[in-house]
């Protein structure tokens, strides 16, 4: 898969056959099992590229994000950032990595230490990364607060998280993720816990910061209606795997995987008069990630299942249109 590369022909981030499994607690002599939350995911992310990950609740989006961030150790496979393998990082290299990759979580209040004011929260990464000059730290804190439009900054510097609205808290989280001037921001459902009225504002802010600072962004969401805001490519996750990936407009115009087709018909229509056209994903539940079905994981819910093939063999990625990859036997 092509991506914007540096002069050494490297993408910014390369996720290679990544597996993150959580061990189930073993009771008595019971057999231990695993929740295969990420189960064989590979993709490249280019410099300055914005990619959206979409998929139903529980399909492994946050686990993928946290493994990319180095917060979970992969069971198998690796994450390679600018040619460096995360699995080989010392704690010092991991600190450097966290200055290069910012993290915006779903719950801003939970992400902010309640006992620190905004000034202290934003200074913390600078202190950890050895910015010793107090005046320099203050300058950078003010600069980043201005970038996230929390002005006049004097009003916000002494405030504690509980004194801010949800939207303002998320702006502080975004400011903190930006303060070390990262190359990549991983935003995991950054607006899903906010009031509808501020969601678009925060997405537009992330988009503006991405353009101004030439950032790559991984935007994770279960809401396909927001992906157009700032992603160039979409990856659709189903049951711990990526089943389809394409440039945003291609995928929205012509989704190929039966699961993606179902997701797209499920986008709520903002016009209330058309509310009845809202459709649901196909009947049935997403499969267990402890015992996933053999073959294509979507086959038990798929209206186009080919018996003897889809229920037996895992489909490889096919490329039926340029840069449009789909793991579905219909495109063999
Ligand atoms: N720390 C953990 N220990 C055990 N199982 C976990 C852990 N974290 C996640 N899981 C399981 O892994 C699977 C994927 O979870 P994950 O949170 O990555 O999904 P998600 O796509 O982010 O869902 P959502 O849209 O609800 O945020 C789920 O079955 C979840 O229960
Ligand atoms: Mg999640």
Task: Describe the overall structure.
It contains 10 helices and 12 strands. With 332 residues, it is an alpha/beta fold. It has a single domain, classed as 3-Layer(aba) Sandwich (Rossmann fold), CATH 3.40.50. The strands form 2 sheets. Strands 6-7-8-3-9-10-12-11 form an 8-stranded mixed sheet. The longest helix has 18 residues. The two termini are 18 Å apart. About 3% of the residues have low confidence. Bound molecules: adenosine-5'-triphosphate and magnesium ion. The site of adenosine-5'-triphosphate (ATP) has 13 residues, from strand 2 and helix 1.
Keywords:
single chain, about 325 residues, alpha/beta, Rossmann fold, 8-stranded mixed sheet, 4-stranded antiparallel sheet, 10 helices, 12 strands, about 30% helix, globular, binds adenosine-5'-triphosphate, binds magnesium ion
Top CATH class: Alpha Beta
What name does CATH use for the topology?
Answer: Rossmann fold
Give, in order, the helices and strands: EEEHEEHEHHHHHEHEEEHHEE
Supply the CATH superfamily name. Answer: P-loop containing nucleotide triphosphate hydrolases
Bound molecules: adenosine-5'-triphosphate, magnesium ion
Radius of gyration: 21 Å
Unreliable spans are 271-280
Give the strand line-up of the largest sheet: 6-7-8-3-9-10-12-11
| Classification by helices and strands | alpha/beta
Helix content: 25-40%
CATH-derived architecture: 3-Layer(aba) Sandwich
Broad shape:
globular
Number of discrete helical segments: 10
What fraction of the residues are assigned to beta strands by DSSP? Answer: 15-25%
How many domains in all?
1
The residue-averaged pLDDT reads 91
- The total beta strand count reads 12
The biggest beta sheet is recorded as: 8 strands, mixed
Distance between the termini: 18 Å
């Amino acid at each position: 898969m092509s991506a914007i590369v540096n002069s050494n022909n490297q993408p910014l981030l390369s996720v290679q056959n990544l597996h993150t499994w959580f061990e189930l607690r073993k009771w008595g002599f019971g057999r231990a099992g695993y929740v295969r939350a990420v189960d064989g995911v590979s993709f490249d992310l280019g410099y300055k590229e914005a990619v959206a990950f979409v998929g139903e609740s529980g399909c492994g989006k946050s686990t993928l994000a946290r493994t990319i961030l180095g917060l979970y150790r992969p069971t198998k496979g690796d994450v390679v950032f600018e040619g460096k393998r995360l699995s080989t990082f010392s704690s010092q290299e991991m600190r450097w990595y966290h200055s290069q990759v910012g993290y915006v979580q779903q719950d801003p209040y939970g992400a902010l230490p309640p006992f620190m004011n905004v000034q202290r929260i934003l200074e913390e990464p600078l202190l950890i990364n050895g910015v010793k000059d107090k005046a320099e730290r203050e300058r950078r804190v003010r600069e980043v607060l201005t970038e996230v439009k929390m002005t006049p900054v004097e009003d916000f510097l002494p405030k504690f998280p509980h004194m801010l609205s949800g939207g303002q808290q998320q702006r502080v989280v975004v400011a903190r993720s930006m303060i070390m001037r990262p190359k990549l921001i991983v935003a995991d459902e950054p607006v899903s816990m906010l009031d509808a009225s501020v969601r678009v504002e925060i997405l537009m802010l992330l988009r503006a910061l991405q353009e101004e600072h030439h950032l790559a962004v991984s935007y994770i969401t279960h809401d396909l209606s927001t992906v157009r805001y700032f992603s160039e490519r979409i990856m659709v996750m189903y049951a711990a795997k990526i089943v389809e990936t394409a440039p945003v407009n291609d995928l929205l115009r012509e989704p190929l995987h039966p699961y993606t087709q179902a997701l797209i018909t499920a986008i709520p229509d903002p016009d209330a008069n058309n509310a009845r056209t809202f459709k649901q994903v196909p009947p049935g539940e997403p499969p267990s990630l402890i015992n996933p079905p053999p073959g294509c994981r979507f086959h038990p819910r798929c209206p186009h299942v080919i018996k003897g093939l889809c229920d037996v063999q895992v489909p490889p990625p096919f490329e039926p249109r340029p840069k449009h990859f789909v793991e579905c036997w219909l495109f063999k």
